[in-house]
Amino acid sequence: MNIKDTIKKKLEDLKKDKEYKKKIEELKKRDPFVYKNF
Amino acid sequence: MIKLGISAFYHDSAACITNGNLVLAAAEEERFTGIKHDSSFPVNAIKWLLRSTVTDISQIEEVHWYENPEKKDDRVKTIFNKRPIRTFFLRQRYKKDRKNNSPEALLKNLGYTGKIIYHDHHYSHAAFSYYTSPYRDAAILTVDGVGEWETTTISKGEGKEIKKLISIDFPNSLGMLYSTITSYLGFRPNEGEYKVMGLAPYGNKTKYINKLYKVLTNTSNKYFINQKYFTWEYSNRVMFTKELCKLLDIPPRLPEEPLTQEHKDLAASLQKLYENEFIKLLETAKNITKSNNICLGGGCAYNGVANALAYKYFDKVYIPFAPSDAGSAIGACLDNHSQFSPYLGTSFTDKQVSKILSTYKESIYIFKLSEDKLINTVADILSKQKIVAWFQGRMEFGARALGNRSILASPVLPNMREKLNKVIKKREGFRPFAPSVPLDNADRFFDLKEPSPYMNKVVKGKTKLIPSATHINGTCRVQTVTALQNPKYFKLLKEVGRLTQIPVLLNTSFNLKDQTITISPKQAIERYLSSDIDFLVINNYLIRKK
Q: What are φ and ψ of residue B505, in 5° steps?
């Protein structure tokens, strides 16, 4: 993989990472979306 | 000896009253509060039990609690101690809940100060399954999210003894894994698992299976779950970490987002992983018990597709009518075999029904018929592709409507499934409906190895005559009915068969979107009037909208 591809992949990963974080934060704001175990 | 059995504070709180090993009455709290899977102390269920069995609280000799709060406390404190700062607020809340949820204090408020006997969570599952089975020798496999520490157990039942042989502890939990992916797919855990099962046949089971196997590893007879991907030990908001998103390489779905092929593939892969692991547990159960019979218990025993795999190792397979926490209220009370029907809940006399119906005279036509005339008329209505809400006798205990609080329809036309899903139940179109059939006619339509009275085995359909009751992969979650089990429903199925040559009905629980199963005639009428259901039947009253 050349540098260009590596950077492109890194950027894609960062974008995905941000999306995952946003989705998880969104879920946290809602009613608890869990299987109760405590 | 009169005992009160209770399960509470996890999922599906419930209570029962037994005399000896005879279960007099039982009900889930959700039916009284209208809160689906209500986990609160079942005070309404207990009050109804006492009223309906004409029992004073002073006559209760023992209370049997379905789990051991001390052992659970040990698990919760141990996992919180791993991350004292991160779990600080959770710990405060847990302490408060523990204080408020003291069984002694709650029972004292009801006037009970006698003995409380605590059983292990998975023992209660195992006892409910084994003691309600017809076997005196069996392997017992229980799988759920978590009890005190245990998430999976294998026991041997012999005579009246239950001996635990293997257990797997939290956080290694197949049930929690299934629930986590359920939530990842945008469905509510402890409720949406049915949807994942229904979605699975639409997907490619190989697409995500290798990725999912990165979270689960096996030894010879146990499995381990890598906690890097999960928040089970420290969150009560979401169940997975960003690492799981990275692993799966698709974002979690929010409930309002559309379902894509990737979601279907993930559902299919999860179901496949669950079946793979379940079959390993079955093999272990066979090897260590050498029994030809198996009893399944715990919430995961609602996975009808996996349940049917038990025939690979066992000749006889039994799954009780309420294998999840609700049934454990009964399991905790039993100490020997006892066979009884699932119809353990509320019932109403014709006089009570008539009085309620009279208050709705302006909105409905009411016809009081003899039982034979009612059966003939309803069978005729159903054969003309109308939808009937059917409210009879005592309410079922457990998640399934088994012909006493049911919405019924003919499975003959393919569009009936869509009509029921979209117009009546207002739920996802992919979800299948279960068919009911008289046991003596079952072989013509279904590839059944044994009777399936509680709708918890998924089998191959044999015919194209009932498209609305057949899932995309040709399977059906069938209920077999006998005259002994439910005489009136049996008669109705037979009459439908006489008229149409197909003695099969779609049977779905009598509730509309997000509602609990109908408990009373008043609720039945209100729901009937607010829906597109064509007819309502309560006892021998046939009701039609004006």
A: -130, 145
SS3 B100: helix
Which residue type is seen at B152?
A: T
**CB-closest option in A16, A19, A28 to B238:** A28
Question: Crossing angle, helix B174-184 and helix B261-289, to 10 degrees?
Answer: 170
Tokens 């017992």 locate to: B140
Q: What whole-number distance in Å separates Cα of residue B274 and Cα of residue B261?
A: 20
Q: Does the distance separating the beta carbons of A16 and B246 come in below 8 Å? A: yes
With beta carbons less than 8 A apart as the criterion, state whether B404 and B391 touch: yes
- Kindly list the residues of chain B whose beta carbon comes within 8 Å of any beta carbon in chain A: 10-11, 39, 76, 90, 94, 97, 145-146, 170, 175-176, 179-180, 183, 188-190, 232, 235-240, 242, 245-246, 249, 251-252, 254
Q: How far is CA B54 from CA B24, B47, B223, B336, B344, in A?
A: 11, 10, 48, 25, 15
Nearest residue to B2 via CA among B77, B55, B67: B55
Q: What residue of A is the nearest CA neighbor of B240? A: A24
Please name the residue ranges forming H helices in B423-541. 442-445, 487-500, 521-529
Residue A18: closest CA among chain B residues belongs to which residue?
A: B242
Report which of B502, B488, B503 is spatially closest to residue B540, judged by C-alpha positions: B488
Q: Look at the alpha carbons of B323, B329, B331, B334 in this order and tell me if their dihedral is positive or negative.
A: negative
**Residues across chain B:** 546
Query: For the segment B471-519, what is each residue's pLDDT rounded down to a tens digit?
Result: 999 999 999 999 999 999 999 999 999 999 999 999 999 999 989 999 9
In this prediction, residue A34 has a pLDDT band, given cuts at 50, 70 and 90, of: confident
User: What is the C-alpha separation between B473 and B461, in angstroms, rounded?
Assistant: 9
Query: Strand, coil or helix: what is B339?
Result: coil
- Tokens found for residue B132: 């309600």
Which residues are CB-neighbours of B50 under 8 A, at least 6 positions away?
Answer: B17, B56, B57
Cis peptide bond N-terminal to B171, omega within 30: yes
Nearest chain B Cα to A27, which residue?
Answer: B238
- Report d(CA B228, CA B231) in Å as an integer: 8
Six token digits for residue B137: 């020798």
Distance from CA of B242 to the nearest CA of A (A): 6
**Which of B363, B323, B420, B345 shows the shortest CA–CA distance to B126?**
B323
Residue A33 clears pLDDT 80, i.e. is over it: no
